[in-house]
Amino acid sequence: MSVAHRRPKLGLALAGGGPVGGIYEVGAMAALDEALTGVDFSQFDIYVGVSSGAFIASALANGLGPGLLARMLIENNGNEVFDPDMLLHPAFGEYLKRAQSVPQLLWGSFKYYLSDPWHLGLLEAFQRLSHAIPAGVFDNAGIDALLRKLFSAPGRSNDFRELKSRLFLVATDLDSGESLVFGSAGHDNVAISTAVQASAALPGLFPPVLIDGRYYVDGALIKTLHASVALQEGADLVICINPLVPFDSELAAKRPKRGRLHHTPSHLIEGGLPVVLSQTFRAIIHSRMRVGMDRYKHQYKNADVVLFEPTRDDADMFFTNVFSYRSRSRLCEHAYQRTRTELYRRRHELAPIFARHGLSLDLAILKDHRRSLLAHQRRPDFRATARALDASLQSLDIWLQQRRNA
């Protein structure tokens, strides 16, 4: 088959962002899947996931489309799959292991101090006690257990090698600081569920995950999206979704307050340390991602990379706790509607890009403002109903006249 007639290879890259980030990605993909003609989001050629994006990417690669994932979130269908409590169990095993090391560390510190008490300060001598601090507060082993159960259903697999599409989940080797791509050659014998657990092991919150004698933590430590993995695999078009962006409070203040669920402070410092750290973290990873996106344009000139993310004035996404789950329906709908708006706003930019790969935007769907992921919020179109009823009555009248004339 000539290159000119080769079917375009499509890739999807999903960044992390905790449960809220995963929920945003599901809502955004539901909008994309609905409005993009010529592609099925559960049948991409390549999936790349990092952190919570690894969770969603592994589900998609197993045939769970955006619509099904959205229903799971909104209708509470299959709630056990998305229950964030699986991320909030204390890491008792880690606590116990560290506690058992305290006597030996204390005795060693005491001997070290006595070896030269005139020149050693107490803080310096007993610094080794920091080794007893747990490497993670919560135990995320529940991710592995739940995904093993989910992927054991007929037609699904927990084995990278058995999937119809290529799935790549990125984690960071703690001892070398380098990225490792599970699902790549030589690293595809690991269970998908375990690779997701490793990719989502955010340092400080979750203990590193031991795989084949190596410890792994969150894949976002090196890169935010890792879209380059899909490009290196020959993807012609990579659709990227990044749920975390830095917040612009001045821009947000100009937006109408109606419908906004979170108060927007004039200065983010009013939100205290959590808000300051959130803004800092988002600014760092977003700046790094932008550098990578610019690099792709030069390294992969024959490929297209399209990014979707919240706007910088999106207070609802910024001020929602990344581990919040109670607002999942609202957040999923929020991402769905925001992405629909963005698709229509960028239609002139995106249409030629998608057309190069056999895809097109269905503008009629994007213009239909009655569409919603929340069934109970879908307002009936009384005019359309009236037209349909009128047409039916006319057909009935014609049929009756024909019967009378027969």
Task: Give a structural overview.
The protein has helices at 18-35, 52-61, 66-74, 79-82, 92-100, 102-115, 122-125, 141-150, 192-199, 227-232, 249-253, 272-299, 315-319, 328-345, 347-355, 363-367, 382-405; strands at 10-14, 36-37, 46-50, 89-90, 138-139, 166-173, 179-182, 209-211, 214-218, 237-241, 304-308, 360-361. The chain is of the alpha/beta class and 406 residues long. Helix 1 (18-35) packs across helix 14 (328-345), helix 2 runs antiparallel to helix 9 (192-199) and helix 8 (141-150) runs antiparallel to helix 9.
Distance between the termini: 60 Å
Shape: globular
Enumerate the spans where pLDDT stays under 50 for 5 or more consecutive residues. Answer: 377-385
- Note the beta-strand portion: 5-15%
Element-by-element helix/strand order = EHEEHHHEHHHEHEEHEEHEHHEHHHEHH
What structural class do you assign from the helix and strand content?
alpha/beta
Gyration radius, in Å: 26 Å
- Summed over residues and divided by their number, the pLDDT gives a mean of 84
Secondary structure: helix percent: 40-55%
**DSSP summary, beta strand count:** 12
How is the main sheet built?
8 strands, mixed
Oligomeric status: single chain
The number of distinct helices, counting runs of at least 4 residues, comes to 17
